[in-house]
Amino acid sequence: xxxxxxxKPSTRNQKKQAILDAAEKIFAEYGFKGATTQMIADFxxxxxxxxxxxxxxxxxxxxxxVQNIFxxxxxxxxxxxxxxxxxxxxxSYINKKxxxxxxHPNGSKVWANEVMHGAPIIQDYLETxxxxxxxxxxxxxxxxxxxxxxxxxxxxxxxxxxxxxTQHYADFVHxxxxxxxxxxxxxxxxxxxxxxxxKIILAGVGLQTGGDDGDH
Amino acid sequence: xxxxxxxKPSTRNQKKQAILDAAEKIFAEYGFKGATTQMIADFxxxxxxxxxxxxxxxxxxxxxxVQNIFxxxxxxxxxxxxxxxxxxxxxSYINKKxxxxxxHPNGSKVWANEVMHGAPIIQDYLETxxxxxxxxxxxxxxxxxxxxxxxxxxxxxxxxxxxxxTQHYADFVHxxxxxxxxxxxxxxxxxxxxxxxxKIILAGVGLQTGGDDGDH
DNA sequence: GTCTATAGAATGATAGAC
DNA sequence: GTCTATCATTCTATAGAC
Lengths: 216, 216
Known about the structure:
The structure is a homodimer of 216-residue chains. With 216 residues, the first copy, chain A, is mostly helical.
C-alpha cells in the first residue's frame, strides 16, 4: 500500500503529455470552441472523463498548450546579441524560426488563433515577457543601425516581418501546400524557402549574405 | 397590395449587408464555432430568427463573409503587370495590401482562420482562382528576374513574404498594439510601417526605392 | 417580413461505481 | 486512478402567431 506512489513514477507526466500533444493538434485544427474534449480524448486514446481528471477544465488544458508554444518561441529568442555580427545573428534567428514552423506548425497555429481572438488567455505574457524581449531586441538592432552596420529602419517592423514570414509557412501551410500542387514541402523546398527568406530580409536591411549564414 | 414590392427596393440588400458586417466582426473575434448567431443578430440589431430568414444557416452566412474577403484580396491583385517597372509594381501592391489590412482587419482575420483550419469552406477558391492568379504573377516576377531587372529568388517566396507581412498588421493587430504600448497605430505609424515594409522587400530583391513608390 | 417560444442536438463537466 | 452514465447548459434552427 505505502509503496504505491513509487510505481510508474512518470506515468502521470507521460499521460499529461499525450493529452497535451493531442490537444495541440485538435485546438490548431478546430479552434478553442470548435475543438471538443471528446475529440481530444479520442485522439489521445483515453476516455473523456479521464482527460478531465488530469485537466479539470477545457480552458486549463488550452492554457497549458498556449504556454508550451510560447516557451518554444522563446527558445529561438536568444539568437542574437549585441556583440554578434548582425548578418549572422539575423540569419540564425530566421533559421531557428523556420525550423520551428516546420517542427511545430500546430503550436504556431494555436498561438495565431489566440492572438487573433484578442489573446484572452495569454494577454499577460504579451504585456510582460514578449514586451520585454521585443524591447531588448529592438535596442540591439537599433545599436547596429547607429553603428552604421545595417540600413536605417524601425527595428520593430523588421521583427514583425521575420515573425510574419517564418510563421506563414506554419499558419498557412494548407494554402502553401495547395499552391504547391497539393504537395507538402520536402527538404529541398524548406531549404529553398529558408534561403530566400534570409536573402530578401538580409539584403533588405543592407546585409549581404555570404557563405556563412549563421547555421547551427 | 400589388405595389408592395416597389417599396424600399434596397431594404433587403441593406439588411443583408448589415448582417454581413456584423458577422465579419463576430466571426473574426470568436471564430466560426465561437461566434453565435445570437451575437451576430444582437450586433446587427435584429432578432435572431430574422437573421435566419436572410441567411438560412450559420454556415451560409460565414461562407458569404469569406467570399467577400476573397473579392477584396483580388481587387489588389492586378497591381502589377509584366510591362510595368518591377519596383513600381511591387510598391503599389504592398501599398494596397497595407491599406486593406488597415481598412479590413476583420476580413483578413476571418480568412486567416479559414485557411488555418484547412479551408473547409473555400478550398475550391484556393485551388482555382488563387492558384491561377498566383501562377500568373509568379510568371511576371520570373520574367523580371530573367531580364536581369531584379535579383534571383523563387517568386513564390516573395509573394508569401508580401502576404504574410502585410496581413500581419491585420491578423496580429492585437499583438502589434500591445507592443505599441497598448495604442493602435495612428496615421504616422501606418505610413512608417508601409515605408519600412516596402524598403526591406524592394531592397531585398535588388530594387532600390526612389521617390516614386507606386503610390496611387 | 418579423418575432416569440421552443424543439432538438451537442457539449462541458461530474457523480459515483470499480 | 479509471470509466460509465448522466446532468445542466448552450446553441442552431424552426414552427407558427402576427
